[in-house]
Design goal:
This protein has 151 residues and is of the alpha/beta class. The chain has a single domain, classed as Dehydroquinase, class II (Rossmann fold, 3-Layer(aba) Sandwich), CATH 3.40.50.9100. The chain contains 5 helices and 5 strands. The protein is globular.
Length: 151
């Protein structure tokens, strides 16, 4: 069974650590990737880590994951609230999907309270800072282990 997990990041996350650090913290996306790779190794996972400001690239990576991956950890950023296309792509993926948000979107503007992605996600992590990515990876690993044990 594949233990490959895609970690996908949406628009503006390339500015992590620089953009609104009072909301998103001081860690950069490179820091997040480093931490994810270290934890993935510990959990026996492989990861592909991507970021794009372009909706179609995220969709292409989700399509690619259909063929090879067991899970997706996704921070769709602003696409969370707008992208039916990302939801449709995720609905074609048979593995586990964990939605991650660095900030607690429910304490923010009203428009951020709605997520298209949540309609497909097996779990949603919000408000734990960049640790949310690590929680997401741990959850995917647990789901894979449960699947293996029940097989």
């Amino acid at each position: 069974m594949s233990r490959l997990v895609y970690v996908l990041n949406g628009p503006n996350l390339n500015l992590l650590g620089k953009r609104q650090p009072h909301i998103y913290g001081h860690e950069t996306l490179a820091d997040v990737e480093r931490d994810c790779r270290a934890l993935a190794e510990e959990l026996g996972l492989q990861i592909r880590f991507h970021q794009s400001n372009r909706e179609y690239e995220l969709i292409d990576w989700i399509h690619e994951a259909r063929e090879t991956a067991a899970g997706i950890v996704i921070n769709p950023a602003a696409f969370t609230h707008t992208s039916v296309a990302i939801l449709d792509a995720l609905n074609t993926f048979e593995g586990s999907v964990i939605e991650v948000h660095i900030s607690n979107v429910h304490k923010r503007e009203e428009f951020r309270h709605h997520s298209f992605v949540s309609k497909r996600a097996d779990g949603v992590i919000a408000g734990f800072g960049t640790q949310g990515y690590l929680l997401g990876l741990r959850r995917v690993a647990n789901l894979l282990d449960e699947k293996k044990d029940s097989a």
